[in-house]
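Session log. Operator J.P. requested a structure for one protein chain; no other inputs attached. Running the standard single-chain path with token output.
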Amino acid sequence: MTALTALLDGIWLPVMALYVLVMAVFLAVGCNLAYLVYLAATRPPRHPAPPPLQSYPMITVQLPIFNELYVVERLIRAASHLRWPGNRLEIQVLDDSTDETQYIAARVVRDYAARGVNIVHVRREDRVGYKAGALAAGLEAASGE
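Structure written below.
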């Protein structure tokens, strides 16, 4: 029993020193985090909001799709609800699909075009270049910048 007590007496001081050192590191990290939170909450943003546009440029949003049955409707809906003047926005659905995605896309495009959204459904005969090729083909017919 005395050997164990002597061993514990010899280890106790280094273990406590290590514990105090680790706690000091945690305290420093915590103080640094609190300081960064304080800075983020009190300083003004480095990049203030830009002034409102005087004239909106004509833009084209291209949506290249290929057999994306479960996403195409949400994708077109999200693009159709962009906050941009309708007369300055063109949406191209560049569809190379070979499954029923093409019919879903055509239906959704037709619905949004009937609501006055400037949207077109572009289909290609071949898939040369895949989605990048679809973007290049759509760019030839795009009216936006």
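Operator note: Strands lie at 59-65, 89-95, 119-123.
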